[in-house]
Amino acid sequence: MLRIAVPNKGSLSGPASAMLHEAGYQQRKESKELVLVDPENEVEFFYLRPKDIAIYVSAGRLDIGITGQDLLVDSGADAEVILPLGFARSTFRFAAKPGTATGIEDLAGKTVATSYEGIVAKHLANSGVDASVVHLDGAVETAIELGVAQVIADVVETGTSLRNAGLEVFGEPIMKSEAVVIRRTGADGDDPKVQQFLRRLQGVLVARSYVMMDYDCRAEHLEQAVALTPGLESPTISPLHNEGWVAVRSMVPAKEAQRVMDDLYAIGARAILTTAIHACRL
């Protein structure tokens, strides 16, 4: 069986399980379950701490895993990303008291507090900056006020919590992260079970990004309509019973669907419908 690590808690857990369910895999019903066997799909899921997943995968104990790109980098594990999943996106930034620093070069000789020591140490080293890194488990905003560090490095979404602590971000982002599928570096990239798993997840990503659009239009307006809805290869065109009319079906990016419907209506298309796509293979 294919052995897959899945986050057991945190912001990665729910979306990861939801995506796996959409891909046709069984998922646990109780949060206390640590292992779930899906015999129909020949997969065994192991629910682990997100920070530990890269370690297990790099050791070869598990074939692949779903974790955060930030957690992979922070762990220093010998594993690589094979598929970005598009959820749990985050940005890591430096922050300090206003006027303290404007760029990473200003961190030389200073102490940086963070919960992601591996990420920050690697970033500082790659930038040629000699600074100390202090590891804290959460609530790093208070580190400066309490004199533990002069700078912090943390996930920044809106920046509200930093402003409330009297801090401001500076410099370029340390890194941007999202949920990813990982495998051990150098593992067999042609493993058919892994490839099938990836195709299923890719199908979910496409299904979430597109809608199926159906509409009727006059034959003389077909070229204009097809230009608006080119689809992936080409739209499906079918003649209607009423002469001079055709039915068109095409995949359209979900975020553009309303605008496309407006444009189709403007050229005379009617009975314009959109439906969700629940599964897809390209």
From TrEMBL:
<keyword id="KW-0479">Metal-binding</keyword>
<feature type="domain" description="Histidine biosynthesis HisG C-terminal">
    <location>
        <begin position="207"/>
        <end position="278"/>
    </location>
</feature>
<dbReference type="GO" id="GO:0003879">
    <property type="term" value="F:ATP phosphoribosyltransferase activity"/>
</dbReference>
<protein>
    <recommendedName>
        <fullName>ATP phosphoribosyltransferase</fullName>
        <ecNumber>2.4.2.17</ecNumber>
    </recommendedName>
</protein>
<dbReference type="InterPro" id="IPR020621">
    <property type="entry name" value="ATP-PRT_HisG_long"/>
</dbReference>
<comment type="pathway">
    <text>Amino-acid biosynthesis; L-histidine biosynthesis; L-histidine from 5-phospho-alpha-D-ribose 1-diphosphate: step 1/9.</text>
</comment>
<dbReference type="Pfam" id="PF01634">
    <property type="entry name" value="HisG"/>
</dbReference>
<keyword id="KW-0368">Histidine biosynthesis</keyword>
<dbReference type="InterPro" id="IPR001348">
    <property type="entry name" value="ATP_PRibTrfase_HisG"/>
</dbReference>
<keyword id="KW-0328">Glycosyltransferase</keyword>
<keyword id="KW-0963">Cytoplasm</keyword>
<dbReference type="InterPro" id="IPR015867">
    <property type="entry name" value="N-reg_PII/ATP_PRibTrfase_C"/>
</dbReference>
<dbReference type="InterPro" id="IPR013820">
    <property type="entry name" value="ATP_PRibTrfase_cat"/>
</dbReference>
<keyword id="KW-0067">ATP-binding</keyword>
<keyword id="KW-0460">Magnesium</keyword>
<feature type="domain" description="ATP phosphoribosyltransferase catalytic">
    <location>
        <begin position="49"/>
        <end position="203"/>
    </location>
</feature>
<comment type="similarity">
    <text>Belongs to the ATP phosphoribosyltransferase family. Long subfamily.</text>
</comment>
<keyword id="KW-0028">Amino-acid biosynthesis</keyword>
<keyword id="KW-0808">Transferase</keyword>
<comment type="function">
    <text>Catalyzes the condensation of ATP and 5-phosphoribose 1-diphosphate to form N'-(5'-phosphoribosyl)-ATP (PR-ATP). Has a crucial role in the pathway because the rate of histidine biosynthesis seems to be controlled primarily by regulation of HisG enzymatic activity.</text>
</comment>
<dbReference type="InterPro" id="IPR013115">
    <property type="entry name" value="HisG_C"/>
</dbReference>
<keyword id="KW-0547">Nucleotide-binding</keyword>
<dbReference type="Pfam" id="PF08029">
    <property type="entry name" value="HisG_C"/>
</dbReference>
<dbReference type="InterPro" id="IPR011322">
    <property type="entry name" value="N-reg_PII-like_a/b"/>
</dbReference>
